[in-house]
Amino acid sequence: ATPVTWRMLLDAGWAPLPGFRAFCGGEALPPELARELLAAGVELWNLYGPTETTIWSSLEQVKGGGTAIAIGRPIDNTQIRILDAGLRDVAPGAVGEICISGAGVARGYHRRPELTAERFVPDTTGDGTRLYRTGDRGRWRADGRLECLGRLDHQVKVRGFRIELGEIESVLAAQPGVAQAIVHVLGDGAAARLAAYV
Asked: Of 155, 157, 194, 148, which is closest to residue 27 (Cα–Cα)?
């Protein structure tokens, strides 16, 4: 479930049975939520991966709720690279775009060839595979675990849903009497909501 769903369960008084395993994904796992789930006795796993890579691409068992929760290591049949704007590997610890290849990568977007060409690119290793450019910023930690550091663009996630703020702004700006519009996310977790200023 998403972090928002786990938060709602805890707030409703849910108590897991002994040995319960919780998988959390869809958006960043807040450290305080991780601490609460661990205190409730669950075996907690943080999962990462966009829909375009058949949902999960990496995982990490969470042992504590530190300040930054890693998204772990790639699952079987998946490769993750951190690349610069020229699609070259960056040094360990350096920040770049998270790019994924492997068996789970989709063919592209239905009837969207221009977007497919932008996001699904040939792997620079020359082995004939394709990379999916996630648009997420990330880095490899010194311990070999992956950390997601947010987006490279203006896309946001609210309760697990991807939202392109620019698309909403364009529709608002096209309305009679609206000269400019900007959309912003207020709050976080279950309280997150979109606010439009016109």
From this structure: 157
Backbone phi and psi for residue 169, each to the nearest 5 degrees, phi listed first = -60, -40
State the Cα–Cα distance between residues 136 and 96, nearest whole angstrom. Answer: 8
Give the residues across from 155 on adjacent strands. 164
**Which of 162, 76, 77, 149 lies closest to 119 in space, CA to CA?**
162
pLDDT in tens, 119-165: 999 988 877 789 999 999 999 999 999 999 988 877 787 877 878 88
Query: Coil, strand or helix: which one is 104?
Result: coil
Structure tokens given for 179: 């000269």
Looking up tokens 């890693």 gives: 70
Distance CA 1, CA 37 (A): 13
* CB neighbour burial string for 38-66, b if at least 16 within 10 angstroms, e if fewer: bebebebbbbbbbebbbebbbbbebeebe
